[in-house]
Specification:
20 helices; mainly alpha; single chain
């Protein structure tokens, strides 16, 4: 136990990051310790791996190349929170890496475990939505696997009923999904029931989240127009009180929010919208999502560990 705890603390330093030679020496030991049955040993080992993957893509590659990902996925189903939490965080760090590294995580079954974690009673575990948002930031093939593994229903449930910090992670997932998905995938997103909870979150005081939601709605409306379904979508948004909420945001204290809301009303809900307004194509830059939609290190920040 003390050896594992020591290794965990050796890996924790980020400034500077542990020397490459030292990491190469530690990784085989950590890989072996992952086979242990003691929860404290597993916990410290997973924390060590989470620290090592909380860095550059090269750091992530060192861990991925050891072949430990299948075991980490197994540990994500652990009933012990002290094992589940760091194993989830390690896999979440891995999918902040390259598309290839994310593909490896998908191939070993990460997405088959995430739906149950999204419904976990502990909100800290529900932040598996952070890991999912980084999968959604990849190519449309990754998004399709996300759909196939049944992620949309629990994500919609989190948007409706989750704690706000978890709702924000779910909003990020929807933003990445929207900008990276195909038209067909966007249709599946709308059919999942995502619009109503997104519209309801427009009243939040978090300006960044409001901006993201407005751009997601704008993106979906443009996709619906390409399919000649915008009228039906506009009626749906109106029925859930969306127009009133967007109109109210035209008076928002943040000028960017006010302008985004104004543009949506004028481009999609104004009676005069057929009088020559030219809508941007789906592949053009979006005002807010273009700068924000990316893989990012999420909120599950490991805390310094005290000596056992």
């Amino acid at each position: 136990m003390y050896i594992t705890w020591t290794l965990s603390n050796l890996c924790q330093n980020k400034n500077p990051y542990p020397p490459v030679k030292a990491v190469k020496q530690m990784l085989p030991v950590l890989s072996h310790l992952l086979k242990h049955q003691d929860s404290e040993v597993l916990s410290d080992t997973c924390w060590a791996l989470s620290y090592l993957t909380d860095g550059t893509n090269e750091c992530i590659s060192q861990v991925v190349n050891t072949g430990v990902l299948p075991r980490l996925v197994q540990l994500m189903s652990s009933s012990e929170l002290n094992v589940l939490t760091p194993s989830l965080h390690t896999m979440g760090n891995i999918v902040t890496g390259t598309d290839h590294q994310t593909q490896v995580a998908i191939d070993v079954g990460m997405l088959t475990v995430l739906p149950q974690l999204l419904m976990h009673p502990k909100s800290s575990i529900q932040e598996a939505a952070w890991a999912l948002s980084n999968v959604a930031a990849g190519p449309c093939q990754h998004i399709q696997r996300l759909i196939a593994c049944g992620m949309l229903p629990p994500l919609v449930a989190l948007l409706k009923n989750g704690e706000f910090k978890v709702q924000k992670e779910a909003v990020w997932t929807m933003a990445n999904f929207t900008t990276g998905g195909t038209i067909d995938q966007l249709i599946q997103l709308v059919h999942s029931g995502v619009l109503e909870p997104l519209v309801n979150l427009l009243t939040t005081q978090d300006t960044k989240i409001v901006k993201i939601i407005l751009d997601v709605l704008s993106f979906i409306l443009q996709a619906a127009e390409q399919l000649s379904e915008k009228e039906n979508l506009c009626l749906l948004i109106e029925e859930m009180g969306g127009i009133d909420k967007i109109e109210a945001l035209q008076l928002h204290e943040n000028p960017q929010v006010a302008l985004m809301a104004l543009n949506i009303i004028e481009n999609h809900f104004s009676e005069g919208e057929e009088s020559g307004i030219i809508l941007p194509a789906l592949d053009q830059d979006h005002e807010f999502l273009n700068g924000l939609t990316k893989k990012y290190q999420g909120p599950l920040i490991p805390k310094p560990r005290s000596k056992p």
